[in-house]
Amino acid sequence: MATTLNAIHPTAPPRRRLGRLGRGRAAIVRHAVINLFMLIILLPLAWVLLMSVKSLPDAMRGTFWPRRFDFTHYRYVFEKIDTLPINLFNSIYVTAGTVVLTSTCAVLAGYALVHLKPRGRDFIIAAFLVSLYFPVRVVSLISVYETQHFLGLINSTSGLILPYVTLNLAISVLIMRSMFQLVPHELMEAAKIDGAGPWRTLWLVGVPMVRNGLVVIFIVNFVTAWGEFLLCTTLTNDQTARTMPVVLAGAQGGLGQWSWPNLAAVYVIVVTPGILAFSFAQKLFFKGLTEGVVKG
Amino acid sequence: MEQTIAANRLSTATHRVGARAAHARRTRERVSSWMFLLPALVFFIGYQVYPIFRVLWISFTDYAFLSNRPAHWVWFDNYAAALHDPLMWVSLWRALEFTLMFLPGTIILPLLLAILVDRVTNPRLATLYRVVLLVPAVIPSTLVFVLWKWMYNFQTGPINHLLVDVLGLFTLQDAPQWLGGTPLTLPSIAIMEVWWGLGYHTIFFIAGLAAIPRDLPEAARIDGASEWQVFWHVIRPRLAPVMMILVVLRFGSAMAVIDEYLIFGGFNRASPTYTWTMFMYDQAFKTGMWRQGFGAAIGMIGAIAMMIVVAFLLRIFRPRD
User: Fold this and answer.
1) CB-nearest partner of B119 from A30, A45, A117
2) Gap between the terminal Cα atoms of chain B
């Protein structure tokens, strides 16, 4: 039917003109719908941001836009909540450790799987893939608790890094593998012929070429480690050993040091680094995402 | 003739020497390739492979973490006890209920949004949309939960503020209690999860759409196909692989949700948030009896039930070429 129509009126001019008119209206509707979604995404965040600068009565009243702004909550939380710097430091420390370790493991493994071709690599890749579908994080909890107890790492902030590394290890290795598949073999061979060992080849030739994938891995692991809840509540008991988001999740809003604007101020402090880092790296991130995740 | 034979001989000889050197190099590379794999494998085996098998072993014993006596092999006692416990079935059903509430929204809405954003031709606007879309994806999980715990707050949350003070649909007496184990808790969490994944999944679909050659839908449109026909016959089949990955991965994450339930639900057995993951956690870490053997069996049953559905889904979505 469609093709016969086309055969009779090869260019179909009247349909086209109508289409362009319709297209103009469609574009308006389209942008309206998109912007509605954008609003839904941004409103909760705007609400928290405003809450952190509301005066106390405004915070209790619940109106979206405050009648009186009060910017002192940020100073207050640093001066009056004595565990806050400790929890923030824990977050930074655990996250940095996790990101560095996971990325290193992923780059080394991804490179080896593609360019060094170890025996049994198909089996390793299959194991990583299966682990993505199995609810490992939940089911392994009992044994991970036991391991951490055995290593004397219960209630230890540093100890959290070990299980955190594995949370995204499989996907990080798989992303790195598909990134290294984009690096031509000849390039690696050329470096080898020039006398570079595998380490030098990886560092000088490989790593610069998988930069975009590294950005994706940094961000993915940062987000996971920064906000991890289950392992942190299970493996630590003291508030001083925990990361900031976990403490925040346990805090009940009310009066005093955990009043709503104070909570919101802490929230803004904790949520900003990720959003800032992502905004700066977004170009590289999108490149890496399309190269590594979708095509891989 | 003679020359070629000599040349051939020479070349095989150098070949052999070269082959031996290449072989030595290959062996060296094999060894060093394992050196490169070692860090990842240590973590992967230590904190993923070993724990799963360890939990499998524990599930066949009466292992209790705090007790001094050694664990006894009890065969399928834990499994039988769990399967006879109505709570096991109820908790599995609750997890499935949540998954069914969450899955359609988290696939269809992003797909719709992706088709709309994909048509934006202004490059600046397109970039802006993409950045905003990914903002929730870079908010760490716990912070998403905390944010929505406040959004849903009965007294000071903006949602109830809107419903009670602005729209006047409810009074403070009958305003909806979104969280805390009420019937509304699971849908509330599902909405939160859709919000969280909306941008990320949209980006996923946009990347899938970008891989479709532009002239395909154009050609169909010139042929007079309606937008719906273009979507159904041209775009949908080409997005199927992306959709399959999303459905299977999101099914897996939704069935195994636990953090949200710990934060929003608590350990009330009657709460709709008391799913198999909470049942396992409760038995293993909370009840004070520390029945890890029983808890491990619950975890294994949940995981196996999930894997059966995943295998089924993979079969449905397998490429039919």
Assistant:
1) A30
2) 52
